[in-house]
Amino acid sequence: MLLLLLFLLLLLLPPLVMLWWWHSQDARLSWLVRLQHRVAWRVLCWAAAWQQKRLEQSTLHAGQSQQQALRWCLQGAQGPCCPLRGSTDISTFRNHLPLTKASQVQEEEGRGQVLPPTSNQYCGEASLQATLLGLVALNKAYPEVLAPGGTARVTPSSPWPYPLPWPWHALGQVGPTRAKDPGALLLEALRSPGLRALEAGTAVELLDVFVGLEANGEELAEAIATGNPGAPLPGRAAELREALEQGPRGLALRLWPKLQVVVTLDAGGQAEAVTALGALWCQGLAFFSPAYAASGGQQDSRVVRCRLGDVVQVVGTYNQCPVVRFIRRLGQTLSVRGEDTGEDVFSEALGRAVGQWPGAKLLDHGCVESSILDSSEGSAPHYEVFVALKGLRNLSEENRDKLDHCLQEASAHYKSLRFRGSVGPAQVHLVGQGAFRALRAALAACPSSPFPPEMPRVLRHRELAQILQRRVVS
Maximum CA pair distance of the chain? Predict the structure, then answer.
């Protein structure tokens, strides 16, 4: 009997040693992760404090800071495209490179001329400053978000203006941060039920993620259940299926019960996506943006002055610098008879009209003047409007007419032109799923596409408008 016990002990000894070794390895790795996180966070806090001090100094003397920044740009100018190479005289700079007006840009776009391309990535101290101070602000508002394994990015682009490759895993990033496949990023996030924050490049991109999640939910659940990739997680797959069965409202919190905040980059054309996400998939969650990004700016290879095109309202001051709120973009106007209907006026009218369509939630929209699509033959020129909706599959004529009534209420000039018959009623078209994603893909493929990608509400090129026209379902 003793020999039998000794024999059994000898048989069990190797598995017990391996089990103890793996346990000690897990504990050691866990300790290393905590140490790495602590060190990374200390370094970032120190760097953020330094950047906060520089921010205070620059905003206390805003005029001097702007002059100094301009001199740096002029001294660093290179290439044959810059007529001011080596000059540091500001008046000469202004004379040679006058500020472009939005009306000039609109004329150039109408003639098919493209704008000078902007930098395809943020760079410089300003973007680093925004990232560091944004991380500190996020951690202050939501202390558990940046814990290890607390954050996942679900789009290839990042909301943080400056890439910080080393500490990203240590500061809570889940999944392959360098992955370019949105499906792989979403799948990795779905495998982690304890997430406290979701990251996406912009709100529009996050909207695409949730719409795709609903459309491909069963495939994602099957991949999680079978372990493709990673270990099989049938229980988590069942949770995903159950969450999807309950509809879009509050889906994010059903999938990730500890979720607190959504991090996206604030840029033009994002308001409708933020509203739709907040009303449906991300209901109950806060939205955080580390920076506001505007199209236009300095090109890497020259010094140029180009319009930003954003109309902002000053809502306060920080030392000598204004605090602004985005209102609209100058170039985004509709004008078939000189009425100049601005982006803000049109969006407000469309929002009121959609509010009168039972069960409908506006996800995205785009407009085009009828002359661009040659759709005004035999009728007065008018607006062609393409909308993506949730909760409504067909548009009745009564629903379509409500937009024109709302536009007349919003603009006296438009109402006068409609009364005289100089402008025809706006034509509203419902597009299918993926129409605006295809439009953004075409925009991103253009060499002159800005970074971050801007979502235009008024399309001036027939090829872009036809992308939506081909996907009309009602």
Answer: 108
Nearest Cα neighbor of 275 from 424, 390, 111, 414 is: 390
CB atoms within 10 A of CB 71: 15
pTM of the model: 0.80
Per-residue model confidence (pLDDT) at position 35: 76
Q: Name the stretches of the chain with pLDDT < 70.
A: 1-29, 31, 33, 73-90, 93-94, 96-124, 165-179, 294-302, 304-309, 447-454
